[in-house]
Design brief:
The protein is an alpha/beta fold. It contains 19 helices and 27 strands.
Length: about 625
Amino acid sequence: MQTQLNQQEGQAAAHRKDAAAANSILVADCGSVLTKVSLLGLVEGQYRLMARGEAPTTLATPQEDITRGIVQAINEIELVTGRQIIVDGRLLEPEQPDGNGVDVFVTTISAGGPLRLVVLGAASPALTDLVSQAVSGLYAETQALPSPTFTASMAAGQLTQPGATPLPGVSPLPWTPERLALEWRRQIDRLRELQPHAAIIVGMADGPAGATPIQEACQLLVNAAQEQREKTRLFPVPVLYAAAPQYVEASRRLINGAGEVMRLDPLVSASNLGPISLAASSLYERSILRRLPGSETLWSWSSASPVATATSLSSLVRFLAHHYTMNVMAVDAGGANTTLLLAGERGEFIPMVKAGIGVGSGLGELLKRVGSQHISRWLPFDVSDEELRQFVLNTMLHPHVVPSNQRELQISQAFAREAILLTAEALKGGALSNFSPDLILATGGVLAHAPRPAQAALMLLDALQPRGVTSLVLDRTLLFQQLGAIATVNPVAAVQVNENDAVTHRLGTCVIPYGTLPPDQIALRVVVEYSNGRQVQVEVMSGSIEVVPLRLNEQALLTLYPAQTVDVGLGPGERARAAEEIDGGLVGLIIDARGRPLVLPADKAERQARLLQWSQAIGA
């Protein structure tokens, strides 16, 4: 298998042109619902977006070939540009003297589902959380199956510790031999149900159960393999061994044919998550990307190995934070996954991907997680649980269908708010609450295809709840997800397309006062000095949203006079004046004085009235 993959990569390398000197670049992003393809080319010495095409992703029957969706999207580009790119079902590379073909082709992928990783051994909540942190930037799901002996010893220890937090799902009943046998049976059944792509064994030998949890993790894999060998293709599975190093060889002998053991540094703290993250990333490519139908053809076309869309977006966000010395936040509200990325001006980077939570195929899991009340709280009208369930079912069955009326659109956007909120809440340790973004990048179909830019702005403000002063940029061309992958083969093209085409849809600058906002009083006085000398003063009441006209490509100086208990970033009551002119946008200068955290009225009638008021105020 590996020899075959190497041959494919060698064949791809044989017809690649020097990407740094490319005249044309074709980049495809294969999402769970749609495949987006962009053609970039040189225009007066600058790389620009030439054309785009979209088509449904073709992983499911009857097509079952990811390249078919790519070809359909390319056909749209061919129709618009008159350039022939596909010849007899194959990509024409490099660009021909007559202008047909392309020099470079790169791909990002979020389709195919997440990497399912099961945590075995001394899988305490703390260690399981560390594993989740290690794979937080990947399309991955983790599930803990602690060793029965470890679970019993932890439960017994907690019974003797007043105030100790019980282990999730563990009853205080005595752990008799019969109960341990039942737990073994439950874990084997659970392993069969999870169908993991890989397992990770954690735990040191200095715990209350000693080395037994490591041995039992190995035995669990062996027992499950014996039962499943002839029934499914679950085993053997890759096993990441991040436990006591002295037992790695014994574990390898015990597991034998039930798994392929890869030794990693022992997982003991957040300081050594890197090896797990790298190993999981490699497993994602091997177990998910390489197994997509049509992947052999896709790899043969590609000038660089296809990467996960979240990885590509991460590269862009980190680059922008470093290049412009600012705090950058990016959110990608996709059909099957929701991604939130934070990159700081000092090099900090915090990724969070909620795999399986989205506004398409991930809608069912989202409703299960948050409940119908959390969805309906964002709607200015009454909606029944049954209507929400029907909406979810229809969307999951027909994810390509766009909302046909205003009611469906608002329900879809309510789900988007909750998907982003759920992802933000997964950022533990106050990472999000202590992060003040200078720039927020928004991508994903539900945001990019919002009929009005103000609707996208309101979704972002409701779900992310930023503070202080920040700029909102909407990725209506859906290029953000592709630029990181482009940068791997041609950094100049990525920078130029980002500046010339990707960030042209600025929603505007937002001012979000926080602290103790005095109810029914003026929270903030804003003075706007336009470039033509005109000056406007606006008084913003607490609990309201105001929009000051400031068009796209228009700039103005801003002075803020908060109330005594209100903060705009310099401390309560401290006046702030922008050192540089702020940018306008499709919505304008947005003043959000609704308070942080945003608290919706408990009374339904009052809440719905407020939602309508805010929507009208911002122009949504």
